[in-house]
């Protein structure tokens, strides 16, 4: 697997960052004098960004806020989150051993997240995970972000990889859609942040724990190799028929 580039989503895939993102949302609610929202209610919205979480937490009253007021609330959220970025956030079970094994096998590892790049870097630094990755790309790294395939393809290129030898790993429809649009095989994780089970988005493989990751990678690599052999055989057959006629 030495020519493989493996691209991970961050929140809900590599890191369980929900505790700190939810705390930041409730910090905004405290400021507004609104009741806090429990973690179970907010968790499915984590993967959709800070603005979405704030809007869902405030509810219908959010419609009455001006753009300036919304911007101020977002700044309050981000300031609090930046100061508490790894208070409760931790890598999901099995993540670190999996990254260590993959790096030892020569796999290029990268992160493609819709978090701002600086914030993603800060979180990974705080969790001592940055050194595993050849590239870390965020919402502001490229002109586009997921689900636009350009974000994923840009990340692969930034890591020095090639789309034909890359796999995406993510937890939401945004990740799956970006990979499909980029024609990159994608592995869905079941423990992330989505209201709809990840299987419904049609990933090429699904894992319930990072201990299953290498097996899923092996299956996708083997499937791709078989498809290449079949395509070569079909082309040879076509050429042979053409010559015969």
TrEMBL record:
Belongs to the HAD-like hydrolase superfamily. CbbY/CbbZ/Gph/YieH family. Keywords: Carbohydrate metabolism, Hydrolase, Magnesium, Metal-binding. Mg(2+) binds at residues 9, 11, 171. GO terms for molecular function: metal ion binding; phosphoglycolate phosphatase activity. It is an enzyme of class 3 (hydrolase). This is Phosphoglycolate phosphatase. Pfam families: HAD_2.
